[in-house]
User: Fold this.
Amino acid sequence: MDVPIWAWVAAVAVILGMLALDLFVFHRQAHEVTMREAATTSAVWITLGLAFAGVVAWAWGATAAGEYLAGYLIEKSLSVDNIFVFALLLSYFAVPVENQHRVLFWGVLGALVFRAAFILAGATLLETFSWTIYVFGAFLVLTGVKMARHDGGEVHPDRNPVLRVMRRLVPLTPEYHGHRFFVRAGARRLATPMLAVLVAIETTDILFAVDSIPAIFAVTGEPFLVFTSNAFAILGLRALYFLLAGMMARFVYLKLGLAAVLVFVGAKMLASDVYHLPVWASLLVIAVVLATSVVASLRATRAPAPAPGP
Assistant:
């Protein structure tokens, strides 16, 4: 698959353009995001992400489009698990609801930058040292097993080493000042708690990227598809957060489903020299596993039927 430079430039320009439209037009004024707004925005982001698969199919064929969709589905599903952690972080820092979208926006922008760096590093490693694919595969299998054995429901921002260093070096105000990250107090420039929240979100997302980037390399080795599938999945993360944060307690089997996906793609990497699983088969397995875990979760947590009256 030959991806010209102009395609990279165009994809990045579209992504940045959509982010600018979201921040400076639709969320110019800080406000609490309603469920209806979150559902509409989430539907728009998902539609755009799936529509890009059509662009890939038109430019590079059905196989490339299938690889993009598999990567998109992996990142989208793993980002649902991220939502629970983000909800705990925003609750821990008591971020006002009207400011949550703004800090998540900058968190997503930073995530795109860091993930681009990870993708470049991963692609370079795989191209230079072919045996790296086995390292990635073993890492994903171990991560999936660990995820299945632990609920991962606790978040301790106070143990975050980057956040500790920032608090030592950067003076913080005790209270929020709208959605601003810095304020002036006399001659001093002080950071607000919004900056601490952003640092916590960024460092947490880097840990998530360590899982998701190798997982997408299991279904495609093309950096352009890895980046765009990551980007379009992450772009809808904020809307998905406001839509699902209150329902995360119902997804009791989602972590098992995600663990199974990580083990599957890790095993696919480890067996890549023995057997090459078709893209459509990988996409089908991932979709079935995730759909099963979601349906089983919703059935297990549905409200009991009211007792019949006398």
The chain has a mean pLDDT of 81. The chain has eleven helices and two strands. The first strand starts at residue 182 and ends at 185. The chain has one domain: 5-300.
